[in-house]
Amino acid sequence: MNSWFCGVFAAIACGSLASAGTGSDDWKTLDEEIDTLTSSQPVQGAGPSLGALIRPSYLMMDGDDGEPDIGGFGLDQADAWVEGAVGSTAWRLAVDFDGATTEGGGTSLEDAYGLVNLTDQVGLTFGQYKNPVLHSSRIDPENQILFVRPWIGSGFDFWDQGAMVDFSSGQFGGYFSIQNGATGIEAIHSYMARLEFALNAITGGMWSKRTTGKLPDGVTQIGVFHFEDDVAADAQVNGLDVASNFNNWRVEAEVIDVDKDAPIGFAAEPDTTPWDVGAQFMLNQNFDVAARYQDADDSFDTTGITVGVDYYPGDPTVFWSVEFDMVDSDDDFRDGEAIRIGLTLGASRTR
């Protein structure tokens, strides 16, 4: 076992819910339950909303090539947040504490932004935020179909300072963002544009309402994006993702194309087209099962398969996950299997 394999489930090699009865209205019912518990809209003049998301986990892997066996506990998320609104401007502050459990680690600031509603269809986000590049990178951790994100989704799972304009009109939505990028406050930046289309539904209002990534029952969303950073000769990534929620199923698929001139560590290996597809099926009010296949499209033909099951004892904001990960590659150093047990407690936001 090796350090590459330890990180592959968090990001690509060079990169970086259901319960609620049975039948066709299960996902809709679950969304309503979660909304009742965690999605109350702050009332103007009332105090701010507070919350937390805690996701402890246990990971077990067999060692090889001289590497030790791994079997230990960790924190995938330990987030606390506060948010509110003043007039037509919403604000949010979120801090991640999970790094404080590691030697030399500490807390990190995630969200710290104001969201100004310019019109009923247009908003301006100003401050520190995560770009909604991919559906899988944007979706809140507790709403993922598996405990960890896909490799390419993890490549865009980061926060940066900048400004973003978003709009919604009927079934269409869009985001246009400029952030500091890899060079920080130097006068070269990163840019992102995303357009999405929601079949059988409106897009759901402003960006803050779409951030959770949850889709209503019977809705399919198609998104396309362009992302580039001025660092290293305008490295670019283009991509497409599709997500659907129907009856007892959730299905997600995505593909990105990485510029051949992209630097190492820029979302994925340069000059590759990684992709993944996953699905989740709700068996009954207490259990769902999920699976994902991933292809890194790298020089070692690295692929990954993850299968898992979630157990909901009752409250939909508390559930257990058990998953099995397998990575296969022409490079034997990257091969390996892992078993993960995770507990999810809480929610990432009120919106």
Could you describe the 3D structure shown?
The chain contains six helices and 16 strands. It is mainly β.
Rg from Cα: 20 Å
When the domains are counted, the total is 1
Give the helix proportion (percent range): under 10%
- Average pLDDT, rounded to a whole number, is 83
The CATH topology is Porin
Shape: globular
In percent, how much strand structure appears in the residues?
Answer: over 45%
Provide the low-confidence segments as ranges. Answer: 1-28, 34-45
> How are strands sequenced across the largest beta sheet?
1-2-3-4-5-6-7-8-9-10-11-12-13-14-15-16
CATH class membership: Mainly Beta
Structural class: mainly beta
Output the CATH homologous superfamily: Porin
CATH architecture group name: Beta Barrel
Count, helices: 6
For the largest beta-sheet, the strand count, sense and barrel status come to: 16 strands, antiparallel, barrel
Give helix and strand order, one letter per element, not per position: HHEEEEEHHEEEHEHEEEEEEE
Please give the number of β-strands: 16
What is the CA–CA distance across the termini?
41 Å
Concise account of the structure shown:
The protein contains six helices and 16 strands. The chain has 351 residues and is mainly β.
Overview features:
351 residues; Porin; 16 strands; disordered N terminus
Record the SSE blueprint:
Blueprint: H1 3-8, H2 26-38, E1 49-61, E2 70-86, E3 89-96, E4 108-117, E5 122-130, H3 135-138, H4 151-154, E6 159-169, E7 172-179, E8 190-199, H5 207-210, E9 219-229, H6 231-234, E10 235-246, E11 249-258, E12 275-282, E13 287-295, E14 303-311, E15 318-328, E16 336-346
Antiparallel strand pairs: 1-2, 1-16, 2-3, 3-4, 4-5, 5-6, 6-7, 7-8, 8-9, 9-10, 10-11, 11-12, 12-13, 13-14, 14-15, 15-16
